[in-house]
Write a structure and sequence with these properties.
Strand content: under 5%
Number of domains: 1
Subcellular location: Cell membrane
InterPro entries: Gly_transporter (IPR005115)
Pfam family, one: Gly_transporter
Distance between the termini: 62 Å
Membrane topology: Multi-pass membrane protein
Helix content: 55-70%
Shape: globular
Family: Belongs to the UPF0126 family.
Radius of gyration: 20 Å
Number of strands: 0
Structural class: mainly alpha
Number of helices: 8
């Protein structure tokens, strides 16, 4: 079984931080649904490890990261218990959820990118690994809770923010900057884009359907 031996301190920190913060968001969703403690733990663990699990399966990793390091599950359970005991004190659980999710995104993208770079993958796979690690768990959380997924909300910079962060670290690595600084910049760009979307309404152009042109002599009601 793979343990934390042989992993860099950066990888270990990013994995634990990503798991813990995403678990907080999953537990907050459970609190909004007024679930019991088991429901809190289910949503916390699902959200925390979902993205990394999909990434590891797609990249053919021999042992899924949380199977190799079960303490990550304990971190997610701890986050669920914290939210279960304190969620009622929050003025707006949804607003807190959004900001925690943005922070988790800013940690998970560097975590996925760092893993893929360490495994020797090229730029496209590295970027995809960062995006999948950061988005798949939250997507599962929102779908199961019957919410419109944050990653698909109209005009939201979510996947774009994740791609922006991944591209940042790849560019800085190519330019010869220390890898650690590249990961920090990755997180900062990701969080900055996501926060800008929430606070100032930054968004990409949205497709707007246009009425079809009516040709002379053609009834527009005809199929």
């Amino acid at each position: 079984m793979i343990s934390e031996v042989g992993l860099s301190e950066v990888q270990i920190f990013l994995d634990y931080a990503s798991v813990f913060i995403f678990a907080l968001t999953g537990a907050l969703v459970a609190s909004r649904g007024q679930l019991d403690i088991v429901g809190f733990i289910f949503f916390a663990v699902l959200t925390a490890v979902g993205g990394g699990t999909v990434r590891d399966l797609l990249l053919g990793r021999e042992v899924i990261f949380w199977v190799a390091r079960p303490n990550l599950i304990l971190a997610a359970v701890a986050a669920a218990l914290i939210v279960f005991l304190t969620a009622h004190r929050l003025e707006s659980r949804y607003r807190t959820l959004l900001w925690l999710d943005a922070l988790a995104l800013a940690v998970a993208v560097p975590a996925g990118v760092d893993f893929a770079i360490g495994a020797g993958y090229g730029a496209i796979i590295v970027a995809m690994a960062g995006v999948i690690t950061a988005s798949a768990g939250g997507l599962m959380r929102d779908v199961i809770s019957n919410e419109v997924p944050l990653v698909l909300k109209q005009g939201e910079l979510y996947l774009t923010a994740a791609f922006g962060g991944a591209i940042t670290v790849l560019a800085l690595d190519r330019l010869g900057f220390p890898h650690g600084w590249g990961l920090i910049a990755c997180g900062a760009v990701t969080f900055g884009l996501r926060a800008g979307s929430m606070v100032w309404g930054w968004q990409l152009p949205v497709y707007k359907r246009r009425a079809p042109k009516v040709q002379p002599g053609v009834d527009p009601r005809d199929p």
